[in-house]
Amino acid sequence: AIHSAAQKAKADIGQSIGNFKHSLDTFVVVCVLAFVIGLIVLVILRFTLDCCVWTAIVLCVLMWPFAGAFAFLLSRQCEGAGLLHLGKQAEVVHALAGVHPVSGETGPEHSTGDGSDYRGHQDHTDSGALCSSWESQQDFPKYRASNYRELVGAKNYCRNPGPSDDPDKGDTIWCVPKDSKTTWEYCTPIGVRTPACPRGHTIHSRGMREALFYSSFVMFAFGIIFIVCVACCCSRIRLAIALNKVVAIFLASNPSSVLIPIAQAVCGLVWALAWLVSFAFLVSQVPYSHTPTGYFTAHEAHGDARRCPWWEAVSNSRCRSALPGKCYEEWPNGFAWKDNDCLLDGETWKCWRCAPPRYLYDSRFWISLGVFLWTNAFNIACGQMMLAMVVSKWFFAKDKMRTFVVFPGIGTVLRYHIGTVIFGSIVVALVQLVKIFFKLMERQADAEGNSTTACLFRILSCCCGCVERCLKFISRNAYVQTALMGTNFCTSARNAMALIGRNALRFGVLGYVTSMVQHIGVLAMTTATGLVGFLLLREMHPHVTPFTPCVCYVIVGYIVSRLYMSVFQMGVDVCIQCFLVVEEMGTGAEFVPEILRDLIEGQEQNLKGASASKANS
Fold this sequence. Notes:
It contains 18 helices and 4 strands. The chain is mostly helical. Strand 3 and strand 4 form a beta hairpin. The protein is extended and about 105 Å long. Mean pLDDT is 83; it is low at 309-317 and 609-617.
């Protein structure tokens, strides 16, 4: 069976590869069309962004109350009952609880068990239907006061007549409803807010039901908080939508800006492959002196190191006294192996020897790794700096639809700001190198059985990771300030952080809205590319099974959409800083895109100042 399954899988894989090869021309066409589809989606987003974003916000707002209602109903759901039935049942019970006190028809509403002792005045079913009189109903003629003492004076009130061994005995009180399609229905005593569950709840755990019950109110509270936040941030949401529209216009008018991340990816891949070959050669050169060359006993070679948790390493003497073997004293280590030729040392035969490790971390490793990290950070920083320069040039151009800014922006970076890029990338690379050092020290401590030291290095590595993410965020915004003001890296970083601090709420709302727009864009581009590819495949190769080629088309659409969205994200970061610089400096409003002019605080004075300066000149 396993062999036949393997043969079938092999045949399926071969058929999938064959389908892709036969439709290779369609794949090339789809790769080209994916970029065109991306531009079309951006143009459509330009005109539908308001509707998309506000719809997404409304859905997010409604998500919390709906989730709360679902959790509340689920915590009270009876076995075999649907959620909608439970909601209607609870609504009827609450309504009837207020009707009976007004009519004055109340009685002893207490009951135990299956309700055989119930003598109350409930005359409506859980669905709200009025009950028929027991003496006049014809569906169950045996249920009369002469046969069941529970029905004496019962009129049309709900009861559960009969002994406990009666096969027709109900799970709780019931009656025969008037003018209903059902012959009988259950009832709930007057004043009981939560309908009873004769067969138990769908969720059997009482603790889980209580957790869902209380979490429903937490979700309702979050929904209220979300609504308040949206109401208070309407102006900032409009600004975020306008900024995303501006970036969509930029990408539609300058599609060649996507070449920057493509060039980054190609250069990074070529450099990584070349570096990997040289790095593999360097680390595989293990000196002969690194590995012990003598003969050892099994205990001497393997040692008695025991792996203990870090919290036991200090208090447990067994862990503190444990020592690694000769073959495992340093990391990276090789392994111990038993030789056929043994050495007699006194009365002890020593047959174990140490094999060298396959790689070694020395000065060559650290130099090579540092160079790789720096060049990788430099490649990323160059792309960010170039995009920042391109977008800022376009933002302040007078004729935005006809101004070509991609290659002039790249030339400005290469001529004036390459030193800033080098400095910023070195800072990030140094932190990454220190983080890797702590990771390796953690492995070394683990190899030596020192759990406490390994835990310490793990914490230090985590801290370095946090510092690395902060530096990447700072350097990304610093490059935008350098593109705007021409200042050095440190000054740009300080100014960028100060600008973000003064407008933290705007940046927060912008990040939330931009994330939604990016998800919408990626979904639209990927789906459209897959659909267009499927239609082309049907026209060009109707006999080819479309599954494998269509998967490839979707992957291509996703990659292209991520390229567009990476430029989109950087464009939003640049445009918000350009907007805020104009707003705070009080000059340059005449260059701001028309979509954003009405959103500048104090823009009337800004425009008056601009017109006055033109008149004086």
